[in-house]
Amino acid sequence: EWSTLRESSSVAAGEREQVSYERAEMKTVLASRLVKVPEGVEVTIKARVVKVKGPRGELSRDFGHQSVEVTKIDASTIKVEKWFGLKKELACIRSICAAITNMITGVTKGFRYKMRLVYAHFPINAVINGDKEVEIRNFLGQKRFFKTTMRADTTIVKCGKVKDQLILEGNDIDAVSQSAAAIQQSCKVKRKDIRKFLDGVFVSAKGPIEDEE
C-alpha cells in the first residue's frame, strides 16, 4: 500500500499543494519452518531454551533474544514461527532452525575440523598439552609461543597419517569452529607483506565426523 502525505504551502503567487509518497512496509502475518528430529535424539524446549540430548552428549542454547515461538509438535518435529514480522526479522527463523539442526548433528555425529601447518622456511612446531591446549612454536623463527585453549568440549590431536595436520573434534559446532579460528588468529603474520609471508595454521577441511571418514 502507498500512503499519501499532503502538505500545503502558501506561495506569493498562490497556494500550491505538495504531495509526497512513502512506502508502507508490509508485515507477514505468520511465517514458520519445521525441524525434523531423528530417532535416538531427545529435545526439550522451555522458554525458548532448547536442549538436545543424543548418543554423544547434550547441548543447550538460549534463543530468548529473538521474539519467536519455538514449540515441539511431537517427538520428531519442532516448529519455529514468528507473527507479524518484517522481511529482515523473518531471517532469524531459518537461522534458528539451522542452529537446532547443528545441535542435533553434534549430539549424533559430532564435528571435525582439520588444520594444516603451512610454512616456507621456518618449520612450525605444534605441541599439544593433553587434548585441550596447543602451543605453536617457531612461527617465522620467533622464540615466543602462541598458546590456545580449546573451547567447551572441543579436543585437539595430531594426525598420525598426515604430516603437519591437527584435528579438532567436538559436539558444539560453535566451540569447534571458534577454537580453530583462535588457533589461526594466534599466529598471524604482522608487520610483513602477507602476500609474501604465507606461513600460518589454516583450516583445510570441516564437517560432520561420519561424513569425513
Task: Give the secondary structure arrangement, pairings included.
Blueprint: E1 2-11, E2 14-23, E3 28-36, E4 42-46, E5 49-54, E6 57-62, E7 69-74, E8 77-85, H1 91-108, E9 111-118, E10 125-129, E11 133-137, E12 146-149, E13 155-158, E14 165-170, H2 173-186, E15 200-208, H3 209-212
Antiparallel strand pairs: 1-2, 3-8, 4-5, 5-6, 7-8, 9-14, 9-15, 10-11, 11-12, 13-14
Question: Please, could you describe this protein's structure?
Answer:
The protein has 213 residues and is α+β, with helices and mostly antiparallel strands. The protein has three helices and 15 strands. The protein has helices at residues 91-108, 173-186, 209-212, and strands at residues 2-11, 14-23, 28-36, 42-46, 49-54, 57-62, 69-74, 77-85, 111-118, 125-129, 133-137, 146-149, 155-158, 165-170, 200-208. A four-stranded antiparallel sheet has the order 13-14-9-15. Strand 10 and strand 11 (133-137) form a beta hairpin. The radius of gyration is 26 Å and the shape is elongated. The model is unreliable at 1-14 (pLDDT under 50).
The neighbouring-strand order within the major sheet is 13-14-9-15
What would the principal axes of the Cα set say about the shape? Answer: elongated
How large is the radius of gyration? Answer: 26 Å
Number of helices: 3
- Given helix and strand content, the structural type is alpha+beta
Q: Give the low-pLDDT segments.
A: 1-14
Largest sheet: 4 strands, antiparallel
Order of helices and strands: EEEEEEEEHEEEEEEHEH
**Distance, first to last CA:** 55 Å
Summarize the structure.
By secondary structure, the chain is of the alpha+beta class. The chain has helices at 91-108, 173-186, 209-212, and strands spanning 2-11, 14-23, 28-36, 42-46, 49-54, 57-62, 69-74, 77-85, 111-118, 125-129, 133-137, 146-149, 155-158, 165-170, 200-208.
